[in-house]
Amino acid sequence: MKRLLYVIGVLLVITSCGGTKIEQPDLNPLELKVDKQKLEFTAAGGTLEFTVSAQYNPNLSPWEKWYTLEKGTWENNRVTVKVTASANTETKERTGKISVVSGDQKLYVEIVQGAGDETGGGTNTGTVPKPTNNAAWKMARKLGMGWNLGNHFDAHINGVSGETLWGNSEATQETFNKIKAAGFETVRIPVTWLGHIGEAPEYKIEEAWLDRVAEVVGYAEKAGLNVIINMHHDGADSKYWLNIASAAVNPAVHKQIIEQIDAMWTQIAEKFRDKGDWLIFEAFNEIHDGKWGWGANRTDGGKQYKCLNEWNNAFLAAVRRTGDTRILGIPAYCTNVDFAIENFELPVDVVTDRLMVSVHCYDPSDYTLTAKYSEWGHTAASAKKQPGDNEGDLRKVFVKLYENFVAEGVPVYMGEFGCVNRGTIRQQAFQQYYLKYFAKLAKDYGVPAIIWDNGAKGAGNECHAFFDHGTGAYCSSEAEAAMKALLESYYNDSPEYTLETIYNGAPK
């Protein structure tokens, strides 16, 4: 009782002396309301608005990535929200919600968008809007259509890389002269550094190996080509030092890898310090844990994605610390398009508009890589093609890249794509059709693309030989026809040459 009287007395003293005012709760808060419970968009997309009334400034959360929110100024317990939906290229209606939370009150606004009319993947020929014209985007246009010197410097046996280990001849000046003469604007030179790296903490790169890479880069420069170099199989399947499986569960391994990334990219940047913007550094190749995106990355709570985002930051910091301001390629996990959209974080750069996103596309892989299917597209025999809308599914890849990056002023380049060589005339016709359709998509959606060439001659599984790596000559008349189809499609600027005309010209 004495304690109770004491407390009451203290409160009276505080009140009488003008002390801190004790706020009383609002027993009648404003009810959370919206003026529209549902927003309905056409397939073309656009912007609609709704207004929120509430006691407190509400928090808003979109449930889907195909629409974005812009919240206005909170005034007089009201705020207007703009919702912008992208075009729906799918043939079915899509729906979503927006969560609206104010204090302990919550409600939802329903989002509905009508189905698109693209039934064949090639019938919609609307003009793709132009993205922001920044420095990186200008470089993306210069990259154009490119070619990979694959299975070359990236080749390795027993943990040591070597230029001719996987059967290709040493590259020559003539190689790049002929690649340029064929019509390509860019070469990607994958480099594996295994077996040419010194001990910690310097991680000194063997001078002879670095010099030979620089010599071949010089061949490309002399031929007038843009160049991309990277760290390639150093992270292959988490078998080597760029081991993302170990780094994700062992902080000490993660720290050591970051230190090595820093040391090695510092050396590479210093080696090519005098080269202009025509030379791009690409951080890594297809980083994954050996399961090609179907491993622990899907179950570990984002640990592997976080590791790669931090590795990308380490790469960027190392290059910029040398004073180098060139454009850099930043890869997504496994360079997968969906992972680039869902789990990728573009590093914050100290210079403006000098980053590009690196992705690969071999869709559908059972046609482009393994040759399980011999035909592709709406005219293919059903038993010989990947089930589904082949053209439409491929187009969706580019729509995703455009909406999430290119349209936002962040250029993307397709560091690898391809389609293995075929043995029969009819199969070759479908290969050319695929390459033409892919090239036109790349051009229309502002995504430069670099075809994979591993030097493996013949037809079928993983046979991607188009040019001889030692001479630059076409590997065969079939390879020449495929490359001409690809390049003519990409560089055909006639208004009459559209996805629809390519689609209508598919093999019968």
Structure description:
The protein is an alpha/beta fold and 508 residues long. It has two domains: 33-113, Sandwich (Immunoglobulin-like), CATH 2.60.40; 135-504, Glycosidases (TIM Barrel). The protein has helices spanning 2-16, 135-143, 173-182, 207-223, 244-249, 251-271, 303-321, 337-342, 365-368, 390-404, 425-444, 477-491, 499-504, and strands at residues 33-34, 38-41, 46-53, 59-62, 67-71, 78-85, 94-102, 105-113, 145-148, 156-157, 160-161, 186-189, 226-230, 279-282, 328-331, 355-361, 412-417, 449-451. Strand 5 and strand 6 form a beta hairpin.
Topology:
Elements: H1 2-16, E1 33-34, E2 38-41, E3 46-53, E4 59-62, E5 67-71, E6 78-85, E7 94-102, E8 105-113, H2 135-143, E9 145-148, E10 156-157, E11 160-161, H3 173-182, E12 186-189, H4 207-223, E13 226-230, H5 244-249, H6 251-271, E14 279-282, H7 303-321, E15 328-331, H8 337-342, E16 355-361, H9 365-368, H10 390-404, E17 412-417, H11 425-444, E18 449-451, H12 477-491, H13 499-504
Parallel strand pairs: 2-8, 9-12, 9-18, 12-13, 13-14, 14-15, 15-16, 16-17, 17-18
Antiparallel strand pairs: 1-3, 3-6, 4-7, 5-6, 7-8, 10-11
Helix pairs in contact: 3-4, 6-7, 10-11, 11-12
Short description:
The protein has 508 residues and is α/β, with parallel strands linked by helices.
Considering the chains and any ligands shown, give keywords for the structure.
single chain; 508 residues; alpha/beta; Immunoglobulin-like; TIM Barrel; 2 domains; four-stranded antiparallel β-sheet; 13 helices; 18% strand; globular; disordered N terminus
